[in-house]
Amino acid sequence: MLPTSTIHRSMNVVSDAELVAEMKRRLARAPETLSRRLSVQAAHGILYLQGIADTEEDRDALEALADSIPGRVGVYSRIVLSTELRG
Question: What domains appear along the chain, each with residue ranges and CATH number?
Answer without folding.
Answer: 6-85 (3.30.1340.30)
